[in-house]
Structure formats: C-alpha cells, structure tokens
UniProtKB/TrEMBL annotation:
<dbReference type="InterPro" id="IPR036278">
    <property type="entry name" value="Sialidase_sf"/>
</dbReference>
<feature type="domain" description="Photosynthesis system II assembly factor Ycf48/Hcf136-like">
    <location>
        <begin position="204"/>
        <end position="284"/>
    </location>
</feature>
<dbReference type="InterPro" id="IPR028203">
    <property type="entry name" value="PSII_CF48-like_dom"/>
</dbReference>
<protein>
    <recommendedName>
        <fullName>Photosynthesis system II assembly factor Ycf48/Hcf136-like domain-containing protein</fullName>
    </recommendedName>
</protein>
<keyword id="KW-0602">Photosynthesis</keyword>
<dbReference type="InterPro" id="IPR015943">
    <property type="entry name" value="WD40/YVTN_repeat-like_dom_sf"/>
</dbReference>
<dbReference type="Pfam" id="PF14870">
    <property type="entry name" value="PSII_BNR"/>
</dbReference>
<dbReference type="GO" id="GO:0015979">
    <property type="term" value="P:photosynthesis"/>
</dbReference>
<keyword id="KW-0732">Signal</keyword>
<dbReference type="GO" id="GO:0009523">
    <property type="term" value="C:photosystem II"/>
</dbReference>
<feature type="domain" description="Photosynthesis system II assembly factor Ycf48/Hcf136-like">
    <location>
        <begin position="72"/>
        <end position="155"/>
    </location>
</feature>
<feature type="signal peptide">
    <location>
        <begin position="1"/>
        <end position="24"/>
    </location>
</feature>
<keyword id="KW-0604">Photosystem II</keyword>
Amino acid sequence: MSALTSFVSFLLCSFLLAANPSIAGDATVSVSKQTSHTEATLLGLTFRNPQLGWAVGSGGTILKTIDGGKKWRRISSGTTALLTNVYFRDQKVGWIIGANATVRRTGDGGETWTAQPVDTQAPLYGISFPSDSHGWIVGGNGTILHTQDGGSHWTEQASKTNAALYSVQFVSEQHGVAVGAVGTVVVTDDGGVTWVVQEPQGSVTFFDVFFPDPSTGWAVGNAGALFHTTDGGRQWIDRTLPCTTQSCTKLTDLLRVRFTDPQSGWIVGERGMLYRTIDGGFTWREQGSIAAVSLFGLAFPDPKQAWATGEKGTIVQLKIGR
C-alpha cells in the first residue's frame, strides 16, 4: 500500500456523528456552516484575510471565496489529482500540492494554475514558506523539496528517512521541522542542507506541526497524539489527550493544530471534534463536535475568526468572542 493510499484511507475512514452547530463547552465560540456546493473532501485551507480564502481537496477541487465564505466558487485546477494543501504568499501568488507529485502555481489569485516540474513521483502533503524566496514541500518516502527562487524551481533535499512526511514548518530560512509517520520528526538548522532525524516518538502518526514561536511547537496525530517541544523540535513531551468520558471508547485522531498567539491554540480532528487552549497548551478543553464529519483544514486570518474544512465539502466558520 502506497504512502498516499495509507494517508487518505487513514484520514477518511472515520465514524460520523450527528452535527452540532453550537459549542456547549464554550459560549464565546459560535459556529456556522457555509455552503460549498461540492461533496469533495477538503483537505487544505488558507485565508489571506477574513474575506479572501481558498480550499482544496479530492478530484482536483479548488474553491475560492472573496466575501468571507458567504459564497464559495469552484475554480479549475487543471488536474483531477487529490490536492492536499494550499499556500498563498500574498493575494495573487500561491501554490497547490497533492498526489502524483502535483505542484501548481498561480499568479492571479488562483484563477489559473500552471504545473511546475519536480524531480519526484511521491505524493506531497505539507508546504511552508518562511520568506518570499525560500520554501519547502514535504511528502511520501521522506521527500523534501526546496526552492530558493520563490518557487520557480524546486530541488530535492536528503531527509535521511523513508517515512511519509505530512507537515512542515519553517520559522526562519534556516530552522525547520517536519513530522510524519511512525513518530518521525526531522529538524534542520541550516536551511535543509542537513536534516537530523530525532528520536522516534513511538508508533504515532503525526499529521500536523505548528510553532507559535521559534522554540515552542506542537505536533498532533492519531489516537489523540499531542506532543510539545520547547527547544525548536529536538525534544518532545507526550501530552496525548485521554478519553474524558466513561462512554469514550476510541481516542480522537487530531488532524490540524493552530495557535493565534503563544497562549491561544486550537485543534480540529475526526468526527468534527474541536479543542482549545488559552494557557499555552498547559490544559486543552474539549469544545465538542462542530461538524458531522472529520475536519482536515483550519485557518485563522485573525484571532477572532477561523474556518475549518473536511469531508463531504464541509466548511464551517468559527467566530471567537472574549
């Protein structure tokens, strides 16, 4: 079974619960569902500001909004490949990545896309640009691609692992962390010239990593996996979320983590579950299910509002009060 097949099967085989448009656990957060006009699974999501956003997913699906999600419009991607992630450097220039080594670039806000050649056949999952010039993409079989000319050309770097890498974040042009299958964490301090494989974090599969500052980071994964680092990703502390009720029989897979400041963080996962911290991750509070399906995308254009995307074309907006 390929890394892509394993990844998609693992993410999409979730038990569905009834939709819950409100969050009983936190009256300061309101949730509203938006209309996507698609049944595609939406894996990637980004917003440049509270009005302008893009979502991507299965079947080469790209959706764009210019009014905060009141209307989502489908755009031709020029491919039917599964799209796993999307990144925009500004309101015009962006990239989509996905299966079959898909890398496509736009210079007009996503209206048209041009394929970019890369020297790999691996599926691609994570993308990070710490500056306009330098960017990285990670994927199956330990694939790491680097650009130093703003995405015009991509070259492969040696990751020293064959594990699938699902997420990457660079906090500068020199320091970056990528995470993936079988507890894999790889770290670089020289822009990817050398990558150092850290001690494996057990059998956990990490789906996402996020650093609110250069030292402090969080990685999330299957079966409630939640790991914390305070030294830039070299050492990790297991803070896996346990079952919190007597009826809990299966730990929730955590699929995306984001922080809006060093104290305020959010996690979405399977069965539409949402978690929140307001104390820098010391405690995480379960907010309940905000959708009837698993959620894979999470974007905060500002600290007061967010969007999440998932299976069956699901798009939900969160508005956060005081």
